[in-house]
Amino acid sequence: MVQRLTVIGTGYLGATHAACMAELGFEVLGLDVLPDRIERLAAGDLPFYEPGLPEVLRRNLENGRLRFTTSYKEIAEFGEVHFLCVGTPQKPNEYAADVSFVDSAITSLAPLLTRGCLVVGKSTVPVGTASRVSELLRRLAPSPEVELAWNPEFLREGYAVQDTLRPDRLVVGVESERAERIMREVYARQLAEGVPLVVSDFPTAELVKVSANAFLATKISFINAMAEVCEATGADVTKLSQALSYDDRIGGKFLGPGLGFGGGCLPKDIRAFMARAGELGVDQALSFLREVDAINIRRRIRMVDLARHLLGGSFRGRKVCVLGAAFKPNSDDVRDSPALDVAAEIRRQGGDVTVYDPQALDNARKAQPDLGFGESALDAATDAEVVLLLTEWKEFRELDPEVLGARVRERNIVDGRNTLDPERWRTANWTYKALGRP
Ligand SMILES: NC(=O)C1=CN([C@@H]2O[C@H](COP(=O)(O)OP(=O)(O)OC[C@H]3O[C@@H](n4cnc5c(N)ncnc54)[C@H](O)[C@@H]3O)[C@@H](O)[C@H]2O)C=CC1
Ligand SMILES: O=C(O)[C@H]1O[C@H](OP(=O)(O)OP(=O)(O)OC[C@H]2O[C@@H](n3ccc(=O)[nH]c3=O)[C@H](O)[C@@H]2O)[C@H](O)[C@@H](O)[C@@H]1O
C-alpha cells in the first residue's frame, strides 16, 4: 500500500493537499522553491488565511506525519507518489496559461527518480499538457517505472479542508491500470465514503477541470447579464435569481448577482481555455466565454459608475470607503479581486479611498500600495461620503446602519454583493444602491 506522498508547490492548493493527506494517515513531505514559505510551514505558520487549515497543519507536524523541505533530492528519495501543485498563472498581456512552473518542477524532479513511482499533476493546465509532460518525464527519469497521472483539483478557497477531505468527485486521467490502482489506493478513504470517481484519459481529465470553472463563470455572468437588463427596466435581479433558483434544473448555487467573479482561478482559467481552443482551431466553440469575461468586467465598471453618480459625477477629492479587498469572503486572496480593482480605479479617478478587509489587508497593501487602509470597518468609514460593500464578509453583512451612519459624512451605500436588506438601510436614512435592483 502507498504510504509516502510528496507535494511539490505549497501554495493555496499544495499546502492544503499536503496537510490533508497527512490528516488521512499518509507520511507527507512538501516542497517549495521559496525557502521562506517552507520555513513558515515547517513552523506551523500558514502563509495564507484558510479556515481550519492551521489546526490540520499543526496537528500533523506534531505527530510527525508532515514535513517540509526545499530539496528535490529528498523528495525524490522519499515519495512513492509525487503530487504536482505548482502555479499556472495567466501569462502577462496574454490569455494563455504559463505552464513553465510545471515544466521546471518536472525537470528538477525527473532526473532524480531512480525507482518506480507515480507523478500526479493537480495544477490546472491547458488540455494536452499532460501528454507532453508524460513524455518529458519518461525521457528524463532514469527508472523506466516512472509514470504520470492527472488528477485535477476542485477545492474552493475558504472551504479547502472539507473539499479536500470530502470532495464532490475525484477525476483521474491515467495511461495504465497500474496508475489507476495507485490512485485508488491514495484516495481509498474518500472512495470508501462514496465519493464518485471518474477515470479517464489525460485530455478528458484536463478538460473536466477547465470546463467546470467555465460553467461556474458562465452561471455567474448569466445572472449578471440579467442584472444589466434589470437595471434597464427597473426589475430586481435578486428576486429574479431567487425565482430561478426554485427550478431544480437551474439551482441557486453560483447564481448570486453582484460584482462578479475574481480570484486566482476562474478569470485566468476561462482565458487560458479560450487561448487553448484557439490553438486547437475550435475557438468558435468557446467564443461565448469572451462574453462571459466581458459581462464580468462590466460589473466592475458599473460599480464605479454607480458610486461616482452618487457623489454627483466626480470622485476628485471625495472620501470613499471600500469594505472588502479579498476576491471573496473567508479568504485573504486578492488575485484579480473585483473589490481591489474597483478601489484602484476610483483612486485613479481622483477618489480618496480607504479600504478595510478582515483578512486581506496585508496582501491588498502589497498589491495596491497607493490606496488608504483602515484598521476596521468603522475606521475606514470615518468621514466617508460613500461606502461600497464589495466583499460580503459576515461582519459587513451584520453592520448596524446607525453605528456606521454615526461615522460617515454622507449616508450613501452601494451594496456590491446584494447582501444587505435595502429597507433596513433606507429606514435609517441611507441612500441605498445595488447592482441590478432598483
Ligand atoms: N487556489 C485554489 O483554490 C486552487 C488552485 N488550483 C490550481 O492549482 C495550481 C496552484 O494554485 P495555487 O496553489 O493557488 O497557486 P500558488 O501561487 O498559491 O502556489 C504555487 C506554489 O508553487 C510554487 N512553485 C513554483 N514553481 C515551483 C517549482 N518549480 N518547484 C516547486 N514549487 C514551485 C510557488 O513557489 C508557490 O508556492 C494552479 O494551477 C491553480 O489553477 C486548482 C484548484 C483550486
Ligand atoms: O480552480 C479553482 O481554483 C477553483 O475555482 C473556484 O473556487 P474559488 O476561486 O476558490 O472561488 P469561488 O467560490 O468559486 O468564487 C469565485 C468568484 O465568484 C464569485 N461568485 C461566486 C458565486 C456567485 O453566486 N456569485 C459570484 O459572484 C465570488 O465572489 C468569487 O469572486 C471553483 O469554485 C473551485 O471549484 C475551483 O477548484
UniProtKB/TrEMBL annotation:
Name used for this protein in its record: UDP-glucose 6-dehydrogenase
Documented EC number(s): 1.1.1.22
Keywords from the UniProt entry: NAD, Oxidoreductase
Family as reported in the entry's similarity comment: Belongs to the UDP-glucose/GDP-mannose dehydrogenase family.
InterPro entries associated with the record: 6-PGluconate_DH-like_C_sf, NAD(P)-bd_dom_sf, UDP-Glc/GDP-Man, UDP-Glc/GDP-Man_DH_C, UDP-Glc/GDP-Man_DH_C_sf, UDP-Glc/GDP-Man_DH_dimer, UDP-Glc/GDP-Man_DH_N, UDPglc_DH_bac
SMART domains registered for this protein in UniProt: UDPG_MGDP_dh_C
Catalytic class of the enzyme: oxidoreductase
Natural source organism: Actinocorallia aurantiaca
Residue ranges of every copy of the UDP-glucose/GDP-mannose dehydrogenase C-terminal domain listed in the record: 321-422
